[in-house]
## 1
Amino acid sequence: MSVTVIVGAQWGDEGKGKVVDLLSRNADLVIRSQGGSNAGHTVVVKGTTYQFHLIPSGILEGTRSVLGNGVVVDPAQLVKEISLLESMGVDVRSHLLVSDRAHVVMPYHPRLDGAQEQARGSRKIGTTNRGIGPAYEDKVRRTGIRMGDLRSGDRLAERITELIEERNRQLELVSPDRVCDVAQERKALLEEAELLRPYIVDTFPMTDEALRKGARIVVEGAQGTMLDIDLGTYPYVTSSSPTAGGACTGTGIPPTAITRVIGIVKAYTTRVGEGPFPTEVTGELETLLRERGHEYGVTTGRPRRVGWFDGAVAQYSARVNGMTAMVITKIDVLDTLGTISTAGAYQAGDASYSYPPSDLGAFAACVPVYEEQKGWQKDISTIRSREELPRECRDYVTHLEELVGVPSAAISVGPDREETILCNASLLWD
Ligand code: IMP
């Protein structure tokens, strides 16, 4: 048996989709543990680009793929993804299951998300506007509707009507232009419920049996450690737990069953939305990293903020997730640079930190302590072994390993599945 948890070690967008896709080849089951359609994975297979917001990318490998109980599901988005994948020839019906415990992102959730952001004004979080926060709020307040509720035909129309009307009263007060059309939204949701019904099951017996039979399971986290509701840069975070603990609560897999935690570490840093970002860069370097790295949100299209590699963040991630190895992604984006900086710690007045302080004010005041090293200034996208990388690039990889404190299992040198250097396969699978 193996349970491999994939976590983002920074602020999301580390390239987890490609690693999940790689691991899915050797997996019996892939389960997504949290988040919703705020996430976006891009996987490129032989030149074809696949974009996912909800469905685990393992589906491309024909691996049984599950949306776990910790996910919040927007039914319209899920229906759209299923039909898109089917039109590309992917057999979704035979492979996808959705936990009946997963909560539904209702039509009023994105509207409330927008209204809340508007009300925050200059203190806005910069959410993806997908209704994620309000859906999790309802879950925690115990007023949510779960995917399992979409199975029960009798009272469903009535319940949907009541819920939409109740939230409309709230929207009417704060943002009247965001009020839902009850009849239209109810009709759409009932149609989506009908289409999704075959996928919705209690995923516990299947997951439990897989564990008992020694299956190889991959748990796919969305977003990243620094966006974790508890351990991230609160309040500039998402509303779920992208860290390894969330992999357990979001799937029903016990902590004692986890065999590996693989942190996905981008060779530089990006962040979408508001909040402190000590190693952020501006000017020419910002444009270079953003353009070479195609750093635009898959979900929102927003340009991502970019910066140097932040070892304090990555090391913190390694610790709180118990990372057993890392996969370094997008290192090729740095190919043209003459000099590369990395930060291993911060200075804030007289204080120094080797990890991001919990107090947001203190974190915002942190100035990175940089080290510089020579770039390799070569195209490395065709290289397939660590030994063949230019010396400066090998030195960079070793330096990241020292900063993070875990070995690299693989290095991604381009977006395509083939553009991967396997450093130590035993760190990834049995
Ligand atoms: P929400 O998850 O839409 O509520 O957004 C909260 C914060 O998390 C915002 O800063 C978003 O930009 C960020 N966020 C949410 N999902 C992702 C993601 O998949 N990648 C990067 N940032 C994300």
Note: Residues 11-13, 38-40, 125-128, 130, 132-133, 222-223, 227, 236, 238-239, 272-273 surround inosinic acid (CB under 6 Å).
## 2
Amino acid sequence: MSKKWVYLFDEVAQAEAYAGDWEGVRTLLGGKGSGLADMTRAGVPVPPGFTITTEACNEYRKSGNFPAGMWDQALAALAVTEQKTGKKFGSPANPLLVSCRSGAKFSMPGMMNTILNIGMNDTVVEGMINLTGNPRFVWDSYRRLVEMFGTTVFDLEDEIFEHPMAAYKAQKGYKVDTQMTAEDWQALVAEFKSLFKKHVGEDFPQDVYKQLELSTKAVFNSWMADKAVTYRKKEKISEDLGTAVNIVTMVFGNMGNDSATGVAFTRDPSTGDRKMMGEYLINAQGEDVVAGIRNTDPVEKMGETMPEVYKQFMEISGRLEKHYRDVQDVEFTVERGKLWMLQTRNAKRTGAAAVKIAVDMANDGLISREEAILRVSADQVDFLLHPQFDPNAKRDAAKSGKLFGKGVNASPGAAVGQIYFDANTAERMAKEQKQNVIMVRPFTKPDDVHGMIASQGVLTSEGGASSHAAVVARQFGIPCVVGASAIKINLENRTMQSAGVVAHEGDWISVDGATGEVFLGRIPTQQPNLEEQKDLLTLLTWADEVCARPEIRVLPTGEKSRGLQVWANADYPKDARRARSYGAVGIGLCRTEHMFFEPERLPTVQKMILAETSEERTAALDILLPSQRSDFDGLFDAMNGHPVIIRLIDPPLHEFMPDEEKLLEEVITMKVKGETEGLAAKEKLLSAIKGMHESNPMMGLRGVRLSIAMPEIVEMQVRAIFEAAADCTLRGVVVHPEVMIPLTGTVNELKWIQPRLERIASAVMGEKKVNFSYKFGTMIEIPRAAVTAAEIATLAEFFSFGTNDLTQMTFGYSRDDAERNFLVIYVEQKILPVNPFQTLDREGVGKLMSMAVNDGRKTRPNLEVGICGEHGGDPSSIEFCHMIGNNYVSCSPFRVPIARLAAAHAALKHAGTSVAEDK
Ligand code: PEP
Ligand code: MG
């Protein structure tokens, strides 16, 4: 027998046997197909049908033809479906109608095609009218088929059908579709068929099998549609998965007032609250609800209109949530009083909802704490920490009449931007003009997704919490307000209006996705307070507990160890305090030079640089010492009991000097004007700066090289560090200073500088009569340092990977030039998979790191290893640091919560597995 390409919904056991496990079934049958099969198995009322596999799609995409045997298997499955329903495809006497639905492994809402009512033709229509006695419904269904077939299978523009329909309604004086009579729909069917012929060049197919075949091909083809490709790129879904096709018996929500259709979430997908949230429409088809075109009723209202069905619906939804152990997004239809479940899938949710749901479900024992951690992505936590509106500024804006409208709070977050009324303009303004954009539409469709992604926020005047705009915005974490019905949008004039106030394209608005409010103008935002986010704090505590398990990690040496710690990069005490409050347990990098840039210190720093004798330099440094000491004192105080790594001065000295070109200009102007006062000093300064010129300063006199050329600066810094540490110790603060020497390339540099500095450390401790533990170590930023790590570790007690420089030097790219000139092209052309300055290049830079850790620990088994480059806050890079045996990652204080979660993800993902040497 040929390969099995088609599975009936009740053949899930066979699919499992073929695919190996449930993950395999989902790959084979897609999310929707496996869901329908699984629901069928669980005894949920699902309309009979079958799934054509993703493997068939991939074969079709290669050859342009169905694979051998597939179509025969589909026809056989259709015959079984006929038996199950007691209906016959194409038979006027008792016709079976089916839908043809896409369904990839990962849901891609609205991105691919679906065709409904397949199986209708001129004779079936007559039979259906006899059967149902409802000609209005039958003609309406037929016109939907002709329209969908035209737009989906033959790619006709929506307008080809929408304009004549609008014109027809206008001519009859109708406002809504429900005013259309059977005769009206019949007349439109005739018009749609002739439009079909005009644009397609052939008649609408009367052969129902032809309809099914073409629809199946159209769904396969829609996998490669532009919008689907864009979506997959954004969501990092593999191109190779393909979509399955589900052929499902049609059930009708539009067969009268005992029929209905709706969508619901088993918990609120915006907040995570435990309450069923959904909407439905009596006497309507599913697309009417999802498109957000008609105003829906909340699903609870079904309790009054259809109490029995509602009870059954609530019972089944609850069962589905327990079965899948996750919040479900369900689609249902009631056909003449009988409930059918059409789809269930894990609901898309906001970051806030993801956290709350995960914590609630773990507390209820439905999932484990580990699962709860894995269910929340680093991006979702990132979004939770995004700025919110300053409540006082918002109150003031409301008082001064800036509140423009209010709608449904579909996706939380504060968005401030300029309004644009279509997706293309929104995307263009965001990308080309670098504007912050808010996309405003009456409602959105899948074609609008590129504009939404480019926007800071989305506002629609129609639709509810499950409209397209709401679902997509939630998924991408874009703040969104929908259904702000008091706002009248005029797409032609490019304006929107509310209570007589008009906003034009390009005007600024502020959208609060958490409350549904829309304001004119720009409202300032502020950082959210982590203390108030109790569920997130709980989840992060669980994440820390996972990382702290003593045997969670198998190191490349085979030894067991705890997972990563998360430290932070902080230059000032206020950053250190924030880092602590976000859960950092150390400072991995304090860039001391930032302290030199303070306006009141800079002149002394410049004097120190320009000094012609060592005495002059020491005198300037003596002035700087007390301020450095108090900087460090504040850091130790904020980090009481935790390690603080202070990096000695790193940048080339010219960075502290005035700009050469500007100074030259000043000198010339003075000369031209004949001004003499101060001219000589300026000329002297200019010549000093010229003398410091280097052709490639980032590879010139900086880092440890500068310390060797001019040791007085670092000697002062080390004295300041140890005096501050001693003072703190005397006050009862527990200090663990770690002095970090930057840009080492050879152990001889350390041999030259480190003993001098250590002598100062001991001297200060002697003077102050205190003792505390401290370390001297180095950054690994130069490939040579990584390669000679074994020697470097003879002196260095810790390594910290400066992956910004290490990436620059390993690739030989200057970061700024590369990002400006060619990295985008490299990533687009797949020469590089990602920007290596954002995500660690495991094969190259990573290999050096792994080698450095292993070799360093051969010399010094308890060598402390961390990372302090930008990569320390990137989840994939954090995972790599876990794998090579780093002790900690250090990142910006704002990314600490994300890093804590990512560290736990890495620990759980690799729990118990050994990581080979030299990744
Ligand atoms: C690095 O190079 O990764 C680093 C942290 O140092 P800086 O960015 O200050 O050069
Ligand atoms: Mg560096």
Note: The mean pLDDT is 92.
## 3
Amino acid sequence: MRLDKYICESTSLTRSLAKKALHRGEVCCDGEVIKDSGFKVRDGMTVTLDGNEIGLLGQRYIMLHKPDGIICSTQDEEYQCVLSLLDIEKPDILHIAGRLDVDTTGLVLITDDGQWSHQITSPKKTCGKRYRVTVADPLSADLVAQFAEGVQLNGEDGLTRPAELEILSAHEALLTIVEGKYHQVKRMFAAVGNKVTALHRESVGAIELDADLEAGEWRYLTDAEVASVAAEKASK
Ligand code: URA
């Protein structure tokens, strides 16, 4: 790959800024200052910009513990956006694989791999998302069967797909759904006359929110976590 392209793909510099950095002698390949934009970067070469090593970003897969009050969108006038919590190069080329409401906390997956995120978000797939739900009114045991059969959401045709409810206490439950309709969990509880007062996503497919991540923190997914998404697809 040409050196100017390599710099652009590894950093936030445009092609013209990359060329200027090259002309200023700020770029080294294997320790040697290179000023030629067309220089070919070979596999295994160490490239530095201003003394800092840079590398091609490749595809990125991230889990983030979303705090309350942060919005899952790329820009917003009122709320801080989730991607702004990532202190990495080129956050703008990433997207969110399944958004959460501004007041929902928990696991958000972020990537630049559209095919991978499609496995999670496509309505045709069956990737389970598990939520810890707190509700205003006491939960009754018959809700387990109701959610397993599907409930009628306001303004939707047909019932929701089978969802698994585990009641933990009078006001707290775990709910696993395979769809991702707008405000789905809140609307499911509204459909049975209850109200969600707190919502936290614990897992997406086999990927569990890392307990070591405080709200607002993130980490890259492990190779096994990335592969688990395709593995679920293959096993269905
Ligand atoms: N369902 C909701 O109602 N809100 C979310 O943020 C996620 C699922």
Note: The first helix runs from residue 3 to 10.
## 4
Amino acid sequence: MKISPSLDRRRFVQLGALAAGSALFSGRAVAATPVGFTLPPLPYKFDALEPSIDARTMEIHHDKHHAGYVAGLNKALASAPTLSGQPLKQLLTSLPDVADAELRTSLRNTGGGHWNHSFFWETLTPVATSGTPSAKLAAAINSDLVSIDGFKQAFAQAATKRFGSGWAWLIVQGGKLKITSTPNQDNPLMKGLVPDAELGTPLLGLDVWEHAYYLHYQNRRADYITAWWNIVNWQAVSDRFEAAAQST
Ligand code: MN
């Protein structure tokens, strides 16, 4: 990669962190990561998703909430050196093996929070580049979930009905698309912790914690969900679908 002389050090450090974060998130091994997990930078500016999500919400959500999950995860792992050094996905799928209940809960909440938010940022894009589902994904939605409109309605309903804090998901399960929902920072990868009916490969995830929308929407979760559809990165979601289809 050619580094422009005008690229200042701060940007260079950001790019390095981005590369490390992406590799970490995709599960590829990162050479020697003694400092633990790092907060991946947003792939766009804080105000890039306006008006669906305002800049202040994005800044607090990423710099405070997501950063808090990363810090909490590293703190929990500091007390469990035998669990350190593995990819996040591997850690999340082996949580039932963690005997210490308090540590297991801590890793579930903070590790889930780190994974879910890293996934969430990459699921979104400015409205101008939102696009549409690929032909293959659209065909699968029409086949497994009746229609695109029917899918959006059912997904929004799952997100609306999630009591308290949690997530709505579109997953691939047994080769079929399915809509699910999990509480807190649980996700469809947490085998042995969430019900089998909610396990699968996530394609799309919607954060319905109040911290994701309260500044702008207050109690109007339904309005946040409606506006959120405008900033879904359908290219990323379609790519995930193609990868999931190839691995089954
Ligand atoms: Mn969140």
Note: Residues 3 and 165 are 43 Å apart (CA to CA).
